[in-house]
Amino acid sequence: MIQTERLLLRRWREEDREPFYGLNSDPRVMEFMPGCLTRAESDAFVQRINEHFHKHGFGLYAAELRENQAFLGYVGLAVPTFEANFTPCVEIGWRLSAPHWGRGLATEAARAVVNYAFGELGLDEIVSFTVPENIQSRRVMKKIGMAHDTSEDFDHPNLPEGHPLRRHVLYRLPRPER
Q1: What is residue 158's predicted lDDT score, i.e. its pLDDT?
Q2: Listed residue (23, 22, 30) closest to 131, CA to CA
Q3: What pTM, to 2 d.p., does this model score?
């Protein structure tokens, strides 16, 4: 469990599945993903998140507001399963419901996850990636200190040639010097 001023990042509960499906089926939230998820796909995603926690000891944490326990989405760490020139690696990522955008919550949670990644987990580096047009996520990446080098941009291997979302930008954040 990770706490910030306004948020609690925790392991997933059964009751998270319904609101998670709600955000995964929202076209605004999924604008830069290949498509909205069905209920079965959303539930399978929760299962993969839980399996990741069991395998690695960390993962994508369910995010909730401390003031009212409202489920917001997720923020956390994941080991990508595809091969690219920067893998193996640990990725930081987030997906929050649209009504909670624009309040700095993703940045607040991501900063806490960065501290956890470098402090508790002792990671040397974390990465993040998205499509070039995802300005909101790229803004969070910059706010948490990540750097983008255009020479590392890549075509996502899980998307077919010619797919409009195939091209991705890669951001890196090395562990700070002690």
Answers
A1: 94
A2: 30
A3: 0.93
